[in-house]
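user: can you give me the structure for this one chain? tokens are fine.
assistant: on it. calling the predictor now.
[tool input]
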Amino acid sequence: MSDILASTFVLAVNDLELSKKFFMEKLGFAENMSVDGWSFLSRGACKLRLGDCPGIRPMSDAQDHSWFAYLHVQDAAQLYNEIVENRVEIWHELADKPWGMREFAIVTPDGHRIVFGEKLPV
């Protein structure tokens, strides 16, 4: 079986410029490339493609099923503090979970939710 070498998340967004600004200014992503209607972003191993889809139904309408990614991070508490300082909407506050992860979750301007988690020491 062939290995999967990387992953990229593709998100439909209502306002490409607003979403790009959010990911870059609030979450620390960098833009690697842009083409008509698309922005290609990355932070560390996480890659995103934001597609401009004006008028699309917002993911916030999907309630809890609108989370699209679980991102494994090195220091969840440090990242949580960075995100709180940047005034990002928190969906779930930082907490240690019974499945051995320290997690928190955020909401993007389009209502997408991202969960960040760090494996707790055993």
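assistant: here you go. The chain is about 15% helix and 45% strand. The helical segments are 16-26, 76-85.
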